[in-house]
Amino acid sequence: MKNIAIIIFILTYVLLLIFPKVRAYIALGSALSFVTLGILPVEKAFTTIDWNVILMIAGTMGIVSLFIESKMPALLADLILEKTPNVKWAIISLSLFAGIISAFVDNVATVLMVAPVALDISKKLKISPVASVIAISVSSNLQGAATLVGDTTSILLGGYANLNFLDFFFFRGSPGIFWVVQAGALASTLVLLYLLRKYKHPVSSIDKTVVKDFFPTILLVGMVLLLIIASFIPNTPRTINGIICVTLFVIGMIKKYFETKDFSVISKALKEIDYFTILLLAGLFIVVGGLTEAGVVDDISKLFVRFSKDNIFVIYTLIVWASVLFSAFIDNIPYVATMLPVVSSISSILNIEPYILYFGLLSGATLGGNLTPIGASANITALGILRKDGYEVKASEFMKIGIPFTLVAVTVGYIMIWFLWS
After folding, report:
1. pLDDT-derived band of residue 206, with 50, 70 and 90 as boundaries?
2. Where does the record place the Citrate transporter-like domain (predicted)?
3. 200 vs 364: CA distance, rounded Å
4. What is this structure's pTM?
5. Measuring CA to CA, how many Å separate 359 from each of 181, 201, 297?
6. Suppose 31 and one of 281, 283, 353, 387 were both cysteines; which one would form an S-S bond, judging by CB atoms 3.0 to 4.6 Å apart?
7. Over the Cα atoms of the chain, what is R_g?
8. What does the alpha-carbon distance between residue 279 and residue 50 come to, in Å, rounded to a whole number?
């Protein structure tokens, strides 16, 4: 059974790489194979799915869709641009702003919110928007690891390691991964300043966006506050974070309906949820559960330990930089979903706390996507926006920004995580 499980898993990954547009169905088909072949018992299939993660993603996506529709992000961007002296600082400000938003909002949604502002500036000044949109994209990817709700990979880690919202800020008496990401952001901003040193055109005034509905902003802030409060309450249900996110989204939809008396606003909000990603994750949870049941995860873990000769620093280094490399070419969601139980098993074999390896995995897998234009969904989205505007961006052009940005940010994180939690 173990050999069959390995073959199915390898075939699944190959198909995920070849056919990204149908990867959710590939993951579900693979999950069905594990169950029908008896590798994973039927009664365990349902429980291997982390429903807290599924609910958090669905609820957060719904709240974010209402937040974007309210035009609040566009207004915040306009207010920031009022204070910038030239294009270089406008791009830096927008990338930092995208990073702040992305710490609480999905990376793709962040790019969709902020990139149009960069396009508008570029059109008014008659300059190329390529550098500014790429800067926004890589910054949004960077900050996805900063909080529990910043990215799907963070939600996966939080669910698997039972981390609450505050654990990302302060963990067991030490600064959390949030501060590691901020240090990486500061270092990578210096890289952007150097790369954009020639963009000295003054910024002309931009008309302010008008926001009429502030309730979605209240929902988003309320979600963060409730997640923090829930972290202080003992013995809460395992799905408490998901329940909070979904409940607030439902409240937002109900308010929208009573304002408009139009049921289509509810169906529109529900359509904004990325069911494709949710189905992909559900399938992957079952696949990884099947691998664990078959003993494959333990075997992979033992290989890591044997290769490193029981040296924790070597294992940590291998996990971080292998994650950077793999995430540059494959989607980090299935990678992290697969590696979390491997990391947990490695720590059990070595009889150590797993958290330094968890955080190394998260930082490498999240930031590694910035190495190439296909390494992260936000990058693909950014290049799609530029393509629609008439700008075809070559991989080499993207990587002129992506590679130095990523290497600096990951190196800072790699060093900090080791010294904080080793």
Report:
1. low
2. 13-356
3. 33
4. 0.78
5. 11, 40, 19
6. 283
7. 21
8. 12
